């Protein structure tokens, strides 16, 4: 069978035993080029769900497999979904982290704070990438709400240097205060905005 990805063709035997090998090869191709997977078209049939099972069950008679990539819209939507999941999971953890700084902090507390910094950095970077897309107003569900979300994320860019300053000074009470009264409200507001932007999405790999 021939597997078409962009302008390349991968050739494989029609053997059910190598289904995983085939999927690994496709995913390796996608990962190296930072491409996002949408679905497969197998001999003219679009397959969105239970792809591995369908592939394995029909591999003996397959001839042409097309790997369909995500559109810009799908990439934007996936980023919005990821940001929403991260923020909603992070909110209760930030509250717990603040309490640790108030009561009894340790090395793990500082590691958690570092993880939060990395998460915030990702939020800022992903927003910058999306906001630079042309015709973004035609992609997101609500462009006005998107701009409100941008403003909320921008607040983090102001808060972070201030938080870094109190970290350097090892002022643990101030760290707790900033987490609880500045970072948490910003995250809650961001979550509220993203609730109006959430779409339905595909996956970033074939499985």
Please give a quick description of this structure.
This protein has 6 helices and 5 strands; from the N terminus they run ββαββαβαααα. The chain has 207 residues and is an alpha+beta fold.
Structural overview:
The protein is an alpha+beta fold and 207 residues long. The protein has two domains: 2-69; 73-194, no CATH class. 61% of the residues lie in helices and 11% in strands. The protein has a five-stranded mixed β-sheet with strand order 2-1-5-3-4, covered by helices on one side. A hairpin with a 2-residue loop joins β1 and β2. α5 (143-168) packs antiparallel against α6. The longest helix has 31 residues, at 72-102. The two termini are 18 Å apart. The model has no long low-confidence stretch (mean pLDDT 90).
Main attributes?
207 residues; alpha+beta; five-stranded mixed sheet
Layout of helices and strands, plus pairs?
Elements: E1 2-5, E2 8-11, H1 19-32, E3 37-42, E4 45-47, H2 51-58, E5 64-69, H3 72-102, H4 107-131, H5 143-168, H6 172-194
Parallel strand pairs: 1-5
Antiparallel strand pairs: 1-2, 3-4, 3-5
Helix pairs in contact: 3-4, 3-6, 4-5, 5-6
């Amino acid at each position: 069978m021939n597997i078409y990805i962009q302008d390349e063709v991968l050739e494989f035997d029609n053997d059910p035993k190598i289904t995983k090998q085939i999927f690994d090869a496709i995913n390796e191709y996608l990962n190296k080029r930072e491409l996002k997977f949408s679905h497969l078209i197998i001999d003219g049939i679009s397959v969105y769900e239970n792809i591995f099972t369908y592939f394995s069950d029909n591999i003996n008679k397959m001839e042409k497999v097309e790997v369909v990539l995500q559109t810009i819209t799908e990439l934007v939507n996936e980023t919005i979904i990821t940001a929403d999941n991260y923020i909603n999971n992070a909110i209760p953890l930030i509250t717990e982290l603040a309490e640790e700084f108030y009561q009894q902090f340790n090395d793990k507390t500082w590691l958690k704070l570092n993880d939060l910094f990395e998460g915030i950095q990702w939020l800022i970077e992903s927003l910058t990438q999306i906001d630079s897309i042309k015709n973004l107003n035609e992609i997101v569900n609500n462009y006005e709400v998107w701009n409100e979300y941008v403003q909320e994320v921008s607040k983090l860019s102001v808060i972070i240097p201030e938080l870094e300053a109190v970290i350097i000074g090892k002022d643990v009470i101030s760290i707790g205060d900033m987490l609880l009264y500045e970072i948490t409200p910003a995250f809650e507001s961001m979550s509220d905005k993203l609730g109006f932007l959430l779409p339905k999405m595909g996956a970033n790999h074939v499985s």
